[in-house]
Design goal:
- This protein is 18% helix and 17% strand.
- The chain has 307 residues and is an alpha/beta fold.
- The strands form two sheets. The protein has an eleven-stranded parallel β-sheet, with helices on one face.
- β12 (265-269), α8 and β13 (289-293) form a beta-alpha-beta unit.
- Mean pLDDT is 83; it is low at 12-42 and 57-62.
């Protein structure tokens, strides 16, 4: 997502440079640029389309969004920017915003005004302290990438939004699975990346039914709630699936995985497998990465010429 933001920034670089009165614009916009931007009058900033503020310093830096000065802003990237734990409501006035990157910030809550960003295509809040989305985001029907939490951690984000109406979604990552969410997923048939957490045994049927609808899925992450054992009942061959991550107990895991011939990357942890995974998966022709962490209860793994 950061690379996407930089790409969009380069596309808009001419207007940013003009706004800064021909200042040289570095690819990385940091603390110093934000200070320079604050000293620039509003009339010189009004045509800025992209603002990237990657800040790795641990020093506090209060950042305010003067929305009236950024009426044309379409990309706002604040990754790792230290400061307040709450995004100002004024962000909802940036109605042309397509991309909002808040990864690795100290945010704990998102403002309700986000629902005003009806052109938003990407929202990235991974590695923040946000644990639930504000209500009403189903109006953001142009959303394509909703990145809520990372794929390997235990963090998930609760979503009360009726996500079934977000039918342009290509990425949904880090969502806390409920029975309602599991059922709504079947309406998101265009998904290319799905990551769900806190999956329980009673979600097995609904989740499997939804996966059956996802013919373009290229990346799938399933993280079970501790102590729960689920079943994957999907018959979808998932011909596009290249990356699979599974954390927790899945009853028929190896049999199901062994049919995914397009798999290149397979990560399994805490799966409590009793069958040797190398023997079971040796016929996957495209597998290049197999990562096992506390996944197998046996003491020996057999490696042969075929595997």
């Amino acid at each position: 997502m950061r690379a996407f933001g930089v790409k969009r920034f380069k596309q808009d670089q001419e207007s940013v440079v003009r706004s800064l009165q021909s200042r040289e614009m570095p690819e990385r916009v940091d603390h110093h640029f934000l200070q320079a931007e604050r000293r620039t009058s509003n009339k010189h900033m009004i045509d800025v389309c992209s603002l990237l503020a990657f800040e790795e310093s641990k020093n506090q830096f209060p950042f305010e969004i003067p929305a009236r000065s950024f009426k044309l802003l379409s990309v706002l990237e604040l990754e790792q920017l230290p400061g307040d734990t709450q995004l100002p409501n004024a962000v909802g006035d940036l109605v042309l915003l397509h991309y909002l990157g808040l990864r690795r910030t100290r945010l704990k809550v998102l403002p309700k005004s986000l629902k005003n960003l009806q052109r938003l295509e990407t929202l990235d809040i991974r590695d923040t302290f946000v644990r639930e989305l504000p209500p009403g985001l189903e109006v953001l029907n142009m959303l394509k990438h909703l990145l809520l939490a990372g794929s390997f951690g235990n963090e998930v984000v609760s979503v009360e939004t009726q996500i079934e109406v977000l039918n342009h979604l290509l990425t949904l990552a880090g969502v806390k699975l409920t029975e309602d969410i599991a059922e709504q997923l079947q309406h998101l048939s265009l998904l290319q990346k799905l990551s769900v957490g806190e999956v329980r045994s009673n979600h097995s049927k609904s989740l499997s039914k939804s996966i059956d609808k996802m013919e373009f899925l290229g990346s799938l992450t399933i993280k079970c709630f501790p102590g729960e054992k689920i079943q994957i009942l999907s018959n979808n061959p998932l011909d596009c699936l290249e990356k699979l991550r599974v954390g927790g107990q899945v009853g028929n895991l190896l049999d199901w995985v062994n049919k995914k011939r397009s798999l290149k990357y397979l990560y399994m942890w805490d799966c409590m497998l009793t069958e040797d995974p190398l023997s079971a998966l040796k016929h996957l022709p495209n597998l290049v990465v197999l990562s096992l962490c506390n996944a197998y209860e046996g003491e020996q793994i057999q490696v042969d010429a075929i595997g």
